[in-house]
Design brief:
36% of the residues lie in helices and 23% in strands. With 78 residues, it is of the alpha+beta class. It has a 3-stranded antiparallel sheet. The chain is globular and about 30 Å long.
């Protein structure tokens, strides 16, 4: 499983991902680069900076993923 596959799996499960989670769990230290690639594939994100940590909330995913994106509780009022 590639780093990108792991990040996609997390996005489909919880609807968002952040830099600290990726670093703490040894997924990737280049989350921004992977998000850039996902955007080219049809993903859309809302980005927030919380302290020194970037949070990426998945807004839209490519049609090939049939699973609905969850709405994180922090994002439900938007």
């Amino acid at each position: 499983m590639t780093q990108k596959d792991v990040i996609i799996e997390i996005l489909l499960k919880q609807g968002f991902i952040d830099n600290y989670h990726c670093i703490d769990n040894r997924i990737s230290i280049r989350l921004g680069a992977i998000i850039f690639e996902l955007k080219k594939e049809g993903w859309d994100f809302r980005t927030e900076m919380v302290g020194k940590n970037f949070h990426y909330y998945a807004i839209k995913k490519p049609e090939k993923y049939t699973q609905e994106l969850p709405v994180p509780s922090l994002f439900s009022n938007v």
